[in-house]
Amino acid sequence: MFELHPQLEKDTIFLHDFPFSRLLLLNDSTYPWLVLVPRVPGLRDLIDIALADEAQFYRESRYVSLFLRDTFQPDKLNVASLGNMVPQLHVHHIARFRHDAAWPAPVWGKGAMQPYSDAACASLKAKWQRWWQQQDTGA
Fold first, then answer.
1. pTM over 0.90
2. Which domain holds residue 67?
């Protein structure tokens, strides 16, 4: 049975369940930052995803990236799977801007997390829902 790692549970806000993965918002308003977590127990690295599931996972990751691009028009999208602190497979999708606090370096370790206000969180959730409803995905 799928269980979210306690650190991911603590640091994120639920947005959506795709057929294969769960989409989470990192509760840090510093960057538009989403996290995609396959809902399969025991996965640690991308190579642990079964061949039969790879295309679905990539499709879901693509939707997340498209949402970030369409909604925030970033200068660059960062997509990464580290897992050094949280071993459960999760893939970060981060909209980056030339004016952001960490540019051009990676975002990790660049200041304390700034949690979303309730209003900002609700707004971002609504943006996701509107964007997702406009997609003709079949996913």
1. yes
2. 6-132
